[in-house]
Design goal:
Layout: H1 2-22, H2 34-46, E1 50-61, E2 68-78, E3 81-89, E4 94-101, E5 104-108, E6 115-119, H3 122-132, H4 135-143, E7 150-154, E8 157-162, H5 167-177, E9 191-201, E10 207-218, E11 221-232, H6 244-247, E12 250-251
Parallel strand pairs: 6-12
Antiparallel strand pairs: 1-2, 1-11, 2-3, 3-4, 4-5, 5-6, 7-8, 8-9, 9-10, 10-11
Helix pairs in contact: 1-3, 1-5, 2-4
Protein name: Lipoprotein
Pfam family, one: DUF6612
Keywords: Signal
Length: about 260
């Protein structure tokens, strides 16, 4: 189970490293000032204090090997940082429930439903904070590459996409990923062929959904990773409540 804790943190931080690079970007067509829309989107992002996210992650091997698909149902608050996550691994009949609150991570054993808890390493806590405070960097990256972004207006939303000349996104993800290196995990997410499409509310500039895809290498295997996310309940989560049985779980020493 100690390895499971690390794997969950690895998965969550990988997904969030990608998401926070692209979440506050916005562009537009010739009728609207691109930089203005981008700036308003960044401002809206700064005001997000909580949200629900439904994340579908697919990893498809380039050559041999079995594809992997998992779904993460996440609720998160940023002040203070707390998270509830239910992760389903498709075709394996595995459901993993976990919480992060007050710098403690709780994880439920999917075999017997028992709970264990472990202090969240300070560097991991700081990594979350670094990611959610990356909006200024992201603003600059996207502002400097407005010509590479396409946008169309549809149903009260902006549909933003970047499908070619995406080396700037590759570098942005690489830079963001450098903030998420976990001790003992050697997280080095080198990406290529990045594409993204996301939907932004025209009135509020909040991101409603996104699809990010890229090639990478995981444990020596070349894969195509696709992260499909939907966001809801923005700023309506008051508190993440950890179940009593998890609070009373046996503590597991960290590494």
């Amino acid at each position: 189970m100690k390895k499971s804790l690390k794997k969950i943190l690895f998965t969550v931080l990988t997904v969030f490293a990608v998401f926070f690079v692209v979440a506050c970007g916005n562009k537009e067509d010739t009728k609207i000032n691109k930089e203005e829309v981008l700036q308003k989107s960044a401002e809206a992002y700064k005001n997000i204090k909580s949200a629900d996210m439904l994340i579908n992650l697919k990893m498809e091997p380039k050559k041999s090997g079995q594809p992997m698909e998992l779904t993460m149902d996440v609720s998160i608050t940023l002040e203070p940082i707390a998270m509830k996550m239910s992760m389903d691994i498709k075709d394996q009949n595995v459901k993993l429930n976990s919480f992060i609150k007050d710098d403690i991570m709780y994880i439920q054993n999917p075999v017997d439903n028992s709970w264990i808890k472990q202090a969240l390493p300070e560097d991991v806590s700081n990594q979350f904070k670094n990611m959610v405070n990356s909006d200024d960097e992201t603003y600059e990256v996207l502002k400097n590459n407005l010509d590479k972004v396409n946008i169309k207006e549809e149903g009260g939303n902006y549909i933003i996409s970047v499908t070619k000349d995406t080396d700037f996104l590759k570098e942005a993800i690489k830079k963001q990923n450098s903030k998420v290196n976990m001790a003992g995990q050697n997280l080095d997410l080198n990406v290529d062929n990045v594409t993204l499409e996301y939907v932004v509310d025209k009135e509020t500039y909040d991101t409603k959904s996104s699809v990010v895809a890229f090639d990478t290498n995981i444990q020596g295997q070349d894969v195509r990773m696709t992260v499909d996310s939907a966001f809801s309940n923005v700023n309506n989560i008051k508190e993440i409540t950890v179940p009593e049985e998890a609070l009373n779980a046996t503590a597991t020493p960290g590494k």
